[in-house]
């Protein structure tokens, strides 16, 4: 729960930067946060700068390893297919997400990346953790944009 609160804080910060409010935290084997970030797509002019990808990059750099074995990822929105594939390639142990994404999700919706036979690694997945907080933040963000 504590790490999802931190991810929600990152999502709020992303919203203040004009980014879709998605935040991610990667927790190492010792239970401490290795990486904590939010979306930076607009800021970096990079369509791959999703919170999950940025957190994976930061955690891998901190561990000096391309594999995040025994690490857990907390994110405020169900990862898209790109992020789900990155999570698989990084060998993340557990994915915990808040809001479900019926339109763009790649875990429980859409591509369902982890269910494919070609998926080399599927993490344990826990969805809906603090879902109402994340969903409300997203709804408010998009309502203000319309």
Structure, explained:
Helix content is 39%, strand content 18%. The protein has 146 residues and is of the alpha/beta class. Strands 2-1-3-4-5 form a five-stranded mixed β-sheet. It is built from five helices and five strands.
Summarize the structure.
The protein is of the alpha/beta class and 146 residues long.
**Unreliable segments of 5+ consecutive residues:** none
Span of the ends, CA to CA: 32 Å
The secondary-structure element order is HEEHHEHEEH
Number of helices: 5
Q: State the shape.
A: globular
Tell how many strands the DSSP assignment holds: 5
Class based on secondary structure composition and strand pairing: alpha/beta
Secondary structure: helix percent: 25-40%
Please, what is the average pLDDT? Answer: 97
Spatial order of the strands forming the largest sheet: 2-1-3-4-5
State the assembly state of the protein chains: single chain
Radius of gyration: 14 Å
How does the major sheet shape up?
A: 5 strands, mixed
Q: Report the β-strand fraction as a percent range.
A: 15-25%
